[in-house]
Amino acid sequence: MGLMLGSSTRQHKGGVNGGISTRWVSLLCIASFFLGVLVVNWFWAVPDSVNSDEEAISSHRHLPKEVQPIVNCGKKVATVQADDILSQVSQTHDAIMTLDKTISSLEMQLAAARSTRADSVKGSLEVTKPGVEQLKQREKVFFIMGIVTAFSSRKRRDSIRDTWMPKGEELKKLEKEKGIIIRFVIGHSATPGGVLDRAVDAEDEQHKDFLRLASIKTTCVHRLYEIWTGPLAEYHEPEHWKFGEEGNKYFRHATGQVYAISKDLATYISVNRHILHRYANEDVSLGSWFIGLDIEHIDDRSLCCGTPPDCEWKAQAGNPCGASFDWSCSGICKSVERMDEVHQQCGEGDGDIWHTSF
Question: Does a structural domain hold residue 99?
Fold first, then answer.
């Protein structure tokens, strides 16, 4: 017993004196705790990143599967989608073209309004009293008729004045009440201020029914005519008919005793008159100006018919013609001698114009 106790006492003393102190044990425990915390945090962080990568990879793997039913839904659906796209593109293009035409029309109307305003301010200023100016309001115009004439056609002009064209106060009344203006259109001779110009000036002073074209010389009276019918030359251009017929030196243009243009075309000419080239004949000039425009050409033969008895029959049937025309003479044959006869047999009557509303 005593030996065992003695042996036990020696072991206890040796553990305290020769072993690790309590302070170091505490430090080791604390260090182990922090090390464990770091290790645990590291293990928790790694799975999160791995899980996020796996989720990203999984999403990329599933993405084609989700898109696959929309893209690869069959040739029929793809064709329908392509047709829808083409239809939308076509509708958008049509809308753009419509807007472009609208803008062009508005620009032309604006330019015409500016030109008209400038001309009215420039041409309608009348001095009524010294130092006092008054603007004269223009009457609204419904229709303008220009009769192309020559210096040597005085007798023809007189035959027109003596038949269907009003004179003097009646001509002014026609303009004021009906908005219809009728004028003989002529340019200037090759020698300004010469005998021909003075003769026309004197005639205009008497009748007040001329429209003198400034800076335009009347160099040709006889004209070559084209019509809008007949055999067409074969070109590769679908609208080849605009360029005239085979063997012809002139492109397609309106001609005959009567031809008319719309207000829009008249506005186009007025706005662009400074850059439009003028040829010797006015009908050829109009044809050159309109050949590149998107316009409608109408060959209405009801406005023009032959001389009696052709025009007489139509007048009796209630369908009077706007003008009589003999193809053999490119007009009325012997017009000075026959104008009164044609007017009496084919005209509607001198008083009809005053009882017609427009």
Answer: no
Whether 74 shows a pLDDT value over 70: the answer reads no
Confidence (pLDDT) at 135: 39
* Cis before 192 (ω within 30): no
Domain end marker among 159, 189, 221: 221
In a domain, 96, yes or no: no
Residue 184 lies in a domain: yes
Of 149, 234, 235, 165, the closest CA to residue 199 belongs to 149
Reduced 3-state DSSP string for the chain: CHHHHHHHHHHHHHHHHHCCCHHHHHHHHHHHHHHHHHHHHHHHHHHHHHHHHHHHHHHHHHHHHHHHHHHCCCHHHHHHHHHHHHHHHHHHHHHHHHHHHHHHHHHHHHHHHHHHHHHHHHHCEEEEECCEEEECCCCCCCEEEEEECCCCCHHHHHHHHCCCCCCCHHHHHHHHHHCEEEEEEEEECCCCCCHHHHHHHHHHHHHCCEEEEEEEECCCCCCCCCCCCCCCCCCCCCCHHHHCCCCCCCCCCCCCCCCCCCHHHHHHHHHCCCCCCCCCCHHHHHHHHHCCCCCCCCCCHHHEECCCCHHHHHHHCCCCCCEECEHHHCECCCHHHHHHHHHHHHCCCCCHHHHCCC
| Domains held by the chain: number | 3
Residues 156, 216 within the same domain: yes
Residues 168 and 205 placed together within one structural domain of the fold: yes
Q: Is residue 145 domain-shared with residue 203, that is, in the same domain?
A: yes
**Rounded Cα gap, residues 49 and 46, in angstroms:** 5
Q: Can you give the C-alpha Rg of the chain in angstroms?
A: 49
Domain hosting residue 151, numbered range: 139-221
pLDDT digits (tens, 9 = 90+) for 292-322: 888 888 877 777 888 888 888 888 888 888 8
pTM of the model: 0.52
Q: Across the beta sheet with 143-148, what order do the strands follow? A: 143-148, 180-188, 210-217
pLDDT band for position 126 (50/70/90)? very low
Contact 221, 196 (CB under 8 A): no
